[in-house]
């Protein structure tokens, strides 16, 4: 017997609960009533009343709280009052399937079905317009109860209503059935399904039926779809329900009342795979879980099944989706999951409903052009008739111009069309010329059957115009090109590509992504080996276009490519002249070539051809990124962000003369004078003033140079953020040696105009490539040479050059078959800048090492980081030399390397970030192996973040799931995510900033109080024509509590690490820093005083006043220990002081009367043993340069005079250890006076 209650509610048949499900209880009268809050009695108890809800009690006990229930009836959202009476006025219905409350459900009906003498009630949610659209038929979703009987999460019907009101879900019928333990739920569900198909306009086949549920309901959905309702036999193809979805599935817990009778879903899936290893293609399966959920990591539960699907097939989004999302189960998780499953169901129900394309009348336009026409064509498939019969439908097309980098909608408009049934529909839509940078995506969609379907996407490209000024002399070659994909059997040479040949090829817009199906003539692409392709186009070159220093940019080609202009080969990237590979990894290398004006046809047409190669077996392929164009030197500089304006002739002459002066000093071997032409703040790609002077000494040894001459000189200027004018000098430098040999090189340097004249200043670039000579890289590659040049990238945060603080460091490791430059291609510097600017994470230094393509960051490659790079970086940059402020990160092979390097070196690192890490390839360095063998305490020392895509082509999600399970079992906090995505940059880039935010926010953070434990003094000593600064640093009692403690492990060397305190002396005169000490680093385990001496002779003009600043840093905090203005000698009036008015410490040495000294002013050497105040020892009793950097402990020796050194770790560090004097630390000492003696 069936009863229909429109806009009414099934009285007592269902209970909406909180996140912890509560069961309803059937009273002896047979009526269903709500269980009392926290009650453990089970719905459907027999007449004896002995039925107990042991499952619910178990779940409640595990959570440690009572199950939350409330009397909320399913149709309450439709306007029914608590009393069951319908309000006097109903909300007016809107066109488009929604009422004023946003509901997309016309009504909910209460129905029932009898099975073996028991009546089972169910609710049917009908879509808006169901009664009016009599020609329409609908797919059906069966939403099964969370507890397995008659309970759903609170608000689930409202959520479903909201989802179906969106354009992500089509109109569907949703059924919520109830069950009890009297009959197998599959039998009841089958009967409900038959009733629904009989009573409503459904599409009655498994392709249009879905079963879904939360908790136990998710388990039931899989059982219902994978097994026969009568026999329980597993099905390789669906019988009734072809789409299955589980949200936070309770697949195996004691709270699942059906597990013991219906079986283990994991075992069922595994058994089906043994029968037919492609059975999953007959279904669509969805499962998700919160990472922190109690069910997630149970054996044979969601994560185990997710890993099993990954091992079966690494990329099956058409058939299966598994995600593990961070956090716990709550209403937000439920809402997101419901949106996902209804969207996925819609995509499958409507598969093939619309296909189409979009083309632009003009794809490439200058900024002055107003717009163009978008031509659309879409085909409605035969499936339309299944849903709408012969109904005619007015549809809306929406055109959006979207920024591909930010997804910002730059322009939007709509158009109308009418669909009369299956067939093709065409039209045009006007589109404005809206581009933020170089290109935009023009997306066209059509709203059909209540859903938004993609018609197609076209690229709109902004072409830069050629201007008259020197930095506007460029020919932009982005836009339309003829293209021919030739696979591995290339029939062409460049000479074959006449207009008659290439004009028959399809037209494409290259440099906007990798090759894919449907690009040009590509109809059957194989991701692992996509072959070769040719691109050809023509361009006009103005007669007056620049003719000197021309550069041709050809973007990025995967894996390699070569360029021809007017039939001449201009150059290749990764390609020899015969077309063979150079063997280098060049897919992330910009193709950039010098081109002679003689090759070009000025005032006429030129033809350019690009030959792109993709080599097996590495996937991808294609000419995937720009820029592409012909540039003058000035235009090229402008594109690079370098100075590009041409200065006045007098300024050019001044810069040129300054360089000529430098060349004169180098030719004569006068390196002291040369050093005076280099700004003290010089910085260029990691080089400082000291290092560039040393390089010149090595390049031009005294007496070896006959002449130095620069030709092809260009000078450009720009203004930096402070308003200062900088000059970029470029030239070809010819060196003639005294032995008659000649060398030629290209030079480029940045200069600035100062009070001391035009000085070489450097680029001050914050993201650059540099190199060093590596013994371990040579060893790793089996070289006979003792060292090899190894390159790496350095990223410095905004404000690095202006600040004095010290920074955390990240070592970012590259992928397999790649190199360090891949992160430059992915613009990680921009991601870092944005993240720091938005306050997502603190400022940090990032180092990107290089290695062999298949290094796996093991053996000597690991040691290269730990034994070479870290000391090198710490000695040249202001890094915090503490493992708590150092972490590793990486993608793929780099993700495995990040974990292997960090977890095996706790004295250097305390955090690791992995994007689709190749954990299964790590061997003994795999985090899975390490996590199994090490203690929870040791693993908890690290901040761990790892994520992977569920479509990862290498299946790296499976070992990530395993690692998550191990860490969770050991109680180790970590961040784990499996989300939709593949093994590529598109997956990791959106998570890059959040990964660093998580890592840094969960690593060690210092407190302000630590600087209270630092104090010091500084004094100037001028004698016999020399000027020195004597300074001291005192660490107070309590500093030892800030040391790093490392738990015991197989990799722990010292459980307690010393604390690092770098100190710096700055001397400022006339507003400019004229001296800054090479960084000195005190390494301490407790209280003590450390003395330093700095020789600043010749660095200051003692006739004028100057300022000294004595500073110390601990972690990322800097304390000024002493700061004072020193008057110039010409400003003093010697001998005018009244007797006894001298400031302590200002007397000339040796003039004091014995015994008259004030305390603390004793003549050196007169103190009684053991009576010295900390910091007052006389320098000069220690051999300079004998200390081991970073290892000095407090001693009783006095430091010697120390001159600036290029080794930032070679500072002289000595002093006294006097724990009895720790109470002398004071605020006054921290900001104490600096005095001249």
TrEMBL record:
Gene3D superfamilies: alpha/beta hydrolase, Galactose-binding domain-like
InterPro entries hit by this protein: AB_hydrolase_fold, Esterase-like, Galactose-bd-like_sf, Mycobacterial_A85_antigen
Entry keywords, A to Z: Signal
Stored SUPFAM superfamilies: alpha/beta-Hydrolases, Galactose-binding domain-like
Polar residues composition bias: residue spans: 1213-1228
Keyword Coiled coil included in the entry's annotation: no
Coiled-coil intervals, chain numbering: none
GO MF annotations, alphabetized: acyltransferase activity, transferring groups other than amino-acyl groups
Residue ranges, compositional bias (Basic and acidic residues): 1194-1211
Regions of compositional bias (Low complexity) in chain numbering: 67-77, 1176-1193
Pfam families: Esterase
UniProt-annotated stretches for the region Disordered: 30-115, 1124-1237
Biased segments, Acidic residues type: 1130-1160
Protein name (Swiss-Prot/TrEMBL): Esterase
Biological classification of the source: Bacteria, Bacillati, Bacillota, Clostridia, Lachnospirales
């Amino acid at each position: 017997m069936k009863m229909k209650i429109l806009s009414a509610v099934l009285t007592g048949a269902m209970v909406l609960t909180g996140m912890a499900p509560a069961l309803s209880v059937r009273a002896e009268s047979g009526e269903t009533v709500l269980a009392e809050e926290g009650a453990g009695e089970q719905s459907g108890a027999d007449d004896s009343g002995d039925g107990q809800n042991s499952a619910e009690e178990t779940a409640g006990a595990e959570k440690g709280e009572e199950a939350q229930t409330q009397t909320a009836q399913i149709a309450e959202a439709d306007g029914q009052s608590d009393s069951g009476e319908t309000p006097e006025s109903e909300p007016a219905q809107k066109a488009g399937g929604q009422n004023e409350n946003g509901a997309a459900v016309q009504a909910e009906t209460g129905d029932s079905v009898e099975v073996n003498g028991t009546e089972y009630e169910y609710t049917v949610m009908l879509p808006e317009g169901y009664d009016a659209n009599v020609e329409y038929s609908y797919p059906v979703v069966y939403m099964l109860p969370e507890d397995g009987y008659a309970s759903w999460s609170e608000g689930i019907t409202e959520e479903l209503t909201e989802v179906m009101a969106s354009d992500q879900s089509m109109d569907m019928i949703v059924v919520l059935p109830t069950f009890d333990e009297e009959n197998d739920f599959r039998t009841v569900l089958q009967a409900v399904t038959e009733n629904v198909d009989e009573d409503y306009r459904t599409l009655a086949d498994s392709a249009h039926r879905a079963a879904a549920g939360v908790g136990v309901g998710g388990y039931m959905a899989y059982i219902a779809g994978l097994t026969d309702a009568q026999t329980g036999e597993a099905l390789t193809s669906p019988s009734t329900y072809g789409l299955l979805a589980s949200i936070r599935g309770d697949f195996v817990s004691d709270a699942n009342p059906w597990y013991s009778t219906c079986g283990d879903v994991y075992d069922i899936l595994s058994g089906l795979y043994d029968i037919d290893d492609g059975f999953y293609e007959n279904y669509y399966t969805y499962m998700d879980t919160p990472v922190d959920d109690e069910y997630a990591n149970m054996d044979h539960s969601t994560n185990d099944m997710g890993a099993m699907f990954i091992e079966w097939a690494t990329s099956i989004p058409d058939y299966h989706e598994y995600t593990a999302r961070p956090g716990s189960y709550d209403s937000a998780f439920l809402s997101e999951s419901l949106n996902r499953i209804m969207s996925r169901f819609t995509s499958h129900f409507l598969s093939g409903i619309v296909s189409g394309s979009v083309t632009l009348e003009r794809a490439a336009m200058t900024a002055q052009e107003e717009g163009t026409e978008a031509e659309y064509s879409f085909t409605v498939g035969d499936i339309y008739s299944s849903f709408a019969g012969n109904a005619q439908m007015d549809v809306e097309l929406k055109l959006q111009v979207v920024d591909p980098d930010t997804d910002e909608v730059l322009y939007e408009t709509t158009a109308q069309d009418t669909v009369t049934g299956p067939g093709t529909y065409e039209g045009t839509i006007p589109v404005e010329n809206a581009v933020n940078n170089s290109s935009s995506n023009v997306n066209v969609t059509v709203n059909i059957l209540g859903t938004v379907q993609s018609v197609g996407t076209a690229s709109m490209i902004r072409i830069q115009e050629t201007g008259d000024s020197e930095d506007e002399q460029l020919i932009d070659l982005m836009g339309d090109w003829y293209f021919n994909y030739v696979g591995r059997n290339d029939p062409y040479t460049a000479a074959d590509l006449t207009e008659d040949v290439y004009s028959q090829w399809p037209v494409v817009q290259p440099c906007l992504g990798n090759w894919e199906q449907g690009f040009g003539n590509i109809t059957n692409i194989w991701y692992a080996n996509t072959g070769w392709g040719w691109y050809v186009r023509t361009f006009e070159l103005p007669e007056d276009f620049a003719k000197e220093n021309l550069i041709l940019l050809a973007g990025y080609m995967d894996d390699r490519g070569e360029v021809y202009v007017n039939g001449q080969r201009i150059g290749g990237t990764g390609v020899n002249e015969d077309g063979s590979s150079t063997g280098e990894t060049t897919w992330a290398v910009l193709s950039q070539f010098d081109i002679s004006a003689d090759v070009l046809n000025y005032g006429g047409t030129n033809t350019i051809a690009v030959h792109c190669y993709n080599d097996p077996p590495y996937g991808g392929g294609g000419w995937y990124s720009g820029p592409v164009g012909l540039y003058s030197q000035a235009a090229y500089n402008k594109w690079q962000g370098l100075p590009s304006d041409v200065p006045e002739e007098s300024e050019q002459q001044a810069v040129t003369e300054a360089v000529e002066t430098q060349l004169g000093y180098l030719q004569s071997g006068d390196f002291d004078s040369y050093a005076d032409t280099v700004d003290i703040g010089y910085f260029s790609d990691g080089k400082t003033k000291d290092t560039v002077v040393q390089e010149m000494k090595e390049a031009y040894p005294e007496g070896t140079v006959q002449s130095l001459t620069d030709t092809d000189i260009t000078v450009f200027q720009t203004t930096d953020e402070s308003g200062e004018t900088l000059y970029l000098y470029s030239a070809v430098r010819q060196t003639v040696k005294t032995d008659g040999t000649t060398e030629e090189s290209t030079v480029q340097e940045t200069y600035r105009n100062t009070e001391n004249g035009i000085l070489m200043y450097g680029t001050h670039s914050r993201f650059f490539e540099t190199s060093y000579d590596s013994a371990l890289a040579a060893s790793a590659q089996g070289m006979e040479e003792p060292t090899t040049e190894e390159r790496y990238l350095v990223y410095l945060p905004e404000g690095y050059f202006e600040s004095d603080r010290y920074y955390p460091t990240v070592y970012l490791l590259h992928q397999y078959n790649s190199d360090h430059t891949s992160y430059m291609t992915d613009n990680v510097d921009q991601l870092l800048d944005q993240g720091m600017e938005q306050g997502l994470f603190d400022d940090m230094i990032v180092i990107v090492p290089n290695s062999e393509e298949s290094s796996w960051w093991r053996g000597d490659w690991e040691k290269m980081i730990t034994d070479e790079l870290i000391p090198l970086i710490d000695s040249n940059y202001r890094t915090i030399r503490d493992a708590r402020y150092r972490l590793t990160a990486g993608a793929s092979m780099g993700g495995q390397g990040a974990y292997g390097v960090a977890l095996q070196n706790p004295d250097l690192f305390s955090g690791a970030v992995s994007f689709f890490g190749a954990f299964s390839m790590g061997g003994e360095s795999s985090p899975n192996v390490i996590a199994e063998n090490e203690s929870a305490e040791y693993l908890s020392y690290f901040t761990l973040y790892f994520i992977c895509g569920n479509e990862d082509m290498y299946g790296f999600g499976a070992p990530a799931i395993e690692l998550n399970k191990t860490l969770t079992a050991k109680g180790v906090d970590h961040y784990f995510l499996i989300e939709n995505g593949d093994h590529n940059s598109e997956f990791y880039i959106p998570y890059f900033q959040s990964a660093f935010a998580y890592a840094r926010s969960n690593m060690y953070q210092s407190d302000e109080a630590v600087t209270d434990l630092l104090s010091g003094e500084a004094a100037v000593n001028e004698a016999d024509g020399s000027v020195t600064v004597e300074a001291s640093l005192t660490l107070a009692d309590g500093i030892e509590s800030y040391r790093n403690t490392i738990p015991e492990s197989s990799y722990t060397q010292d459980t307690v690490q010393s604390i690092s305190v770098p100190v710096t002396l700055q001397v400022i005169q006339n507003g400019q820093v004229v001296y800054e000490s090479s960084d000195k680093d005190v390494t301490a385990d407790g209280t003590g005083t450390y003395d330093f001496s700095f020789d600043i002779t010749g660095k200051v003009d003692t006739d004028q006043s100057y300022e000294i600043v004595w500073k110390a840093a601990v972690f990322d905090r800097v304390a000024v220990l002493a700061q004072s203005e020193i008057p110039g000698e010409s400003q003093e009036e010697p001998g005018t002081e009244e007797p006894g008015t001298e400031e302590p410490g200002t007397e000339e040495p040796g003039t004091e009367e014995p015994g008259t000294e004030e305390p603390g002013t004793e003549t050196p050497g007169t103190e009684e043993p053991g009576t010295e105040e900390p910091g007052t020892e006389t320098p000069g009793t220690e051999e300079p340069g004998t200390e081991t950097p970073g290892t000095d402990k407090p001693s009783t020796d006095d430091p010697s005079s120390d001159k600036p050194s290029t080794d930032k770790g070679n500072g002289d560090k000595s002093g006294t250890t006097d724990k009895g004097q720790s109470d002398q630390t004071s605020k006054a000492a921290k900001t104490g006076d600096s005095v001249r003696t």
